[in-house]
Amino acid sequence: MRASLTAITEELQRLKAAGVRSVPVTDEALRRLRAQVAGRRAEAGEAAAPAPAAAAAPVEAPRRMPREETPVTAVPPAAAKLPPPPEVSLPEGAKAARWAALRELVLNDPVCRAHVKPGKQVVFGVGNIDARLMFVGEAPGAEEEVQGEPFVGPAGQLLTKMIQGMGLQRSDVYIGNIMNWRPEIPGSGPGGQVGNRPPTEEEMRYCLPYLRAQIEVVAPALLVALGKTAVEGLLGFNRFKTLGEARGRWHEFAGRPLMVTYHPSYILREPTNKKKRLIWEDLLQVMEKAGLPISEKQRGYFLGK
Ligand code: URA
């Protein structure tokens, strides 16, 4: 029982830090909660008093809702108003120390942490801090928030193959995301995440200074934006009607050339040579600009049916 009260308290604190100001609770849930708290106090020989869960997590008093109005899902953190984006200031000094300081800052950011369920992690960029090439994705998914590393799930495995196709190793490049937490489709209870959703503009705006700071520290020569969210985050929300308008062309971000291409998950959904070739042609442009050697074999990848 203590464990479940602690879990509720942590969840309320997490929601509060994420900006949620009220939590709908059914009469029945409230009755059970009170019974649990009363039981715990009785065990401890204390007189009945206000619920410690509510006291420890000072969100507004739960708003009672008739059962039929109770949402099936919890209030999504995305609905919450976020504080203004962080102002990042890094210490002077060696690149590795600056990167490590930035990583600590992000991993301990209370807003990022508030969006991460117990046992899951805020996700910071990974790779070679001297990389000439940096890939920017959307947001951590289920695997990434468990391992605390970008692109380690199915899309990440495909990204690794793309990097290898370019004649590089994953450890040669730097990989970051627009978002440092997994935008969730809320499940029906604590820990009940059921899927990813695209981040909101506000969420992207919140995390963007952290990506900018990584670009500033790593200072890659070239950037590659993977998919629509990365493009929206870097080049502006609603700037392009479709990703097709932006992909395969050089743009600029933070004074660096930026190639736009599809997200690897697009290929996972439609694994045809035609689609693979589209991404590959974008990556050939990146290789050319980076001065990487390109063999005839590489030039011909995915030309077959
Ligand atoms: N998709 C992304 O955009 N980023 C990840 O880290 C994983 C999947």
What does this structure look like?
The protein has 13 helices and ten strands. It has 305 residues and is an alpha/beta fold. The chain has a domain at 95-299: Uracil-DNA glycosylase-like domain (Uracil-DNA Glycosylase, subunit E, 3-Layer(aba) Sandwich). The strands form three sheets. The protein has a six-stranded mixed sheet, sandwiched between helices. A two-stranded parallel ribbon has the order 1-2. A hairpin with a 2-residue loop joins strand 9 and strand 10. Helix 4 packs antiparallel against helix 8 (201-218). The site of uracil (URA) has 12 residues, from helix 7.
| Overall average pLDDT | 82
Query: How much of the polypeptide forms β-strand, as a percent range?
Result: 5-15%
Name the strands of the widest sheet in spatial order.
Answer: 3-5-4-8-10-9
Broad structural category? alpha/beta
- Helix % is 40-55%
CATH architecture of the domain at 95-299: 3-Layer(aba) Sandwich
What's the CATH H-level superfamily name of the domain at 95-299?
Answer: Uracil-DNA glycosylase-like domain
Largest sheet: 6 strands, mixed
Distance between the termini: 60 Å
Ions, cofactors and other ligands present here are: uracil
Please give the radius of gyration in angstroms. Answer: 23 Å
Put simply, the count of helices is 13
The CATH topology of the domain at 95-299 is Uracil-DNA Glycosylase, subunit E
User: What are the low-pLDDT stretches, counting only 5+ consecutive residues below 50?
Assistant: 20-24, 41-76
Element pattern in H and E? HEHHEHHEEHHEEEHEHHEEHHH
What is the count of β-strands? 10
